[in-house]
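Worked Example 4.2. Consider the chain below.
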Amino acid sequence: MSSHYVPNTKTPTIVFETSGQATRHLALMIESLIRQNNSASRPTVLGLPTGSTPVGLYRELIRLRQEAGLDFSRVITFNLDEYFPMPKDDPHSYNRWMHETFFNHVNIPPQNIHIPDGTIPPDQIDDYCQAYEQLIRRAGGIDLQILGIGRTGHIGFNEPGSTRASRTRRVTLDPVTRRDAASGFYGEENVPHQAVTMGVGTILDARKIVIMAFGEHKANTVKKAVEGEVTEAVAASFLQNHPDSTFLLDSAAAGQLTAVQTPWVIGPVDWTDAKIRQAVIWLSLQVKKGLLKLDDDDFREHHLYELLREHGPAEKLGQRVFADRMSTIVHSPAGDAANGRQKILVFSPHPDDDVISMGGTLIRLVEQGHEVHIAYMTSGNIAVFDHDAERYVDYATAFNRLFGIDEAKSATLRDGITRFLKTKTIRQPDSDALLKVKGLIREAEARAAALACGIPPEQLVFMDLRFYRTGTIAKAPIHPQDIDDIARLLGSLQPAQIYVAGEMSDPHGTHRTCAEAIYSAVRRVRSVGQQFQVWLYRGAWEEFEPHELERVVPLSPDQLERKKQAIFRHQSQKDRAMFPGGSDRREFWQRAEDRNLDTARVYDQLGLPEFYALEGFVQWREE
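Applying the procedure from the previous section yields the following structure tokens:
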């Protein structure tokens, strides 16, 4: 799908198939602006954001500097915000992050770089903020302001309640914003309560504004910002009144826009098979009738007269979609093993994604006689709490002492880790030894969970991909050797099917990075003749939309219970089991169970056969 403007939005909105396409588009805009101003000997003043959203943009700008000679020597930058208080050299400082991520790799003069200072004494902060505003004015104002958007709709740290006229100031962070930042700070309690941010008025003074939003977790907020009313409750909605502002979205972030979710409400629709399926399923759930019970009036009364006229009557449309959804129900996802035992390879980005997201299908595949292998792509070590690591080190030391195994060496290792933990500061990354212990904990739990599904240890691969080995939340780009390792595994195992986590919320998160690496490897091995099916499962929290599902695997009560028992083996993750942002603190097994029960409930509401639980999949097809 090529990029396109979305109708029915109050702020111009362009949707791209992927976040990478969107960031390349913006990078080319910035390149054009800089080159144009450089040729006229004028500075280019940029307003810059931080966070995971702009990482791809900064990498693309660095590439343009290194490969296309883009000259940043006349660029002046003003960053949006900084936590307060926050030392500049702190691992969580936006000052440090910007230099490590971008400024150290391009030729912007240091005197041209402006980032809010998180070390200003509290009694001087008001004067400092006024001076920051004055610096922007002296630079001639911001030519292009780049933004991300938070789940509360904030731009910068302008939380709900920020006024249109607000300027650079110290603010108190919304609890949702602090929860969203919790993983990066190793716990919500460590996230600062305040920040220094440009105001809404400061942002709107920019001559041009581009705001990026990627991933389905941003979809609801994007809808409010571009289709809702202008309100202080959603600071990004103020962009509706700016003369030159644009939203750049990937397809996931656009998922709840009216033109995407219910396009028939706003105008004519090209009635493809996919659109017909989407509309009829939506109608069935809207009027609470099964697919085979829909009548012509249901279509007429819900903006679907054209669909009825072109492809009706209602009975025909209901039967068409009913048959289509029936075909998605697959009891034997790899076929009957009596006709040939299949090798199945499941890629799990973290050591628990496999059982949380498709544990029931794993159990079913094993029960049906197939050979299931799991490749754990990263160690997942940063998700283990310090107290759990210390407990396991104490256990290992006592175990070795009990059986006379390297007692002195293990005690020395334990003492070193204990000393590190006693002196470790709140935001300090783990030592190499501690990371290895945490990785070992997660590996042991993965083995136990796989065994609960009937998969023996010899059919597990722990890949420990290089991009993940930063020891912090922020990850490196995918490493070429990571793709080599995946391609080598595909070549040696020769699977008939592979399963991939299709969760794409975070543009630079582990799931997305792993998926893109797998796709690259799949293209490589397919180019030399290796063929297999590629099925996507969703991440830990949400299922694919009903009209998107291409395969659902029924689970019995016993199979769902065994899946939950496998999830229980990931004991170190128990306290981390919450919905992103902390809004739902149910444990992983509860979220997984509810999700599988809900999918079965939707199929039942559509008038399809009733099952206890369903796991859903979508087939990946190479573009």
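The two ends are 9 Å apart (CA to CA). The chain has three domains: 4-259, 262-326, 337-384+431-619. Compare this with Example 4.1 before moving on.
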